[in-house]
Design a protein that fits this description.
FeS-contain_CDGSH-typ; iron; mainly beta; single chain; 2 domains; Ribosomal Protein L9, domain 1; 9% helix
């Protein structure tokens, strides 16, 4: 089954394929296009690494929605994205 997803802030014109037999009532979605809208597009692959013992704060939030103005750190932009799209993405929390 293929579909097109769009909303005020997100648009996917490529077919979106849903898993025919989802496990435990979940739905698997495979994006055919870009996930990263604009962050470091000149790089072949965006990779960030941290040494946990060198973190300044006891808890650091890292972006997983690719929309943070402070990428790779989370700035809460996912909240607006989730409301607009019905998505449920949140940050990766790293504890020191």
């Amino acid at each position: 089954m293929a579909s097109t997803i769009s909303s005020a802030l997100f648009s996917c014109t490529s077919p979106v394929t849903f898993n025919r037999k989802p496990k435990r009532g979940s739905v698997s979605v495979r994006a055919e296009g870009g996930i990263n809208p604009q962050i470091r597009k000149e790089e072949a692959k965006v990779v960030d690494s941290v040494v946990v013992t060198e973190l300044e704060k006891p808890l650091t939030a890292y972006c997983r929605c690719w929309r943070s103005a402070t990428f790779p750190l989370c700035d809460g932009t996912h909240v607006k994205h989730n409301k607009a799209t019905g998505d449920n993405v949140g940050p990766l929390l790293v504890k020191k």
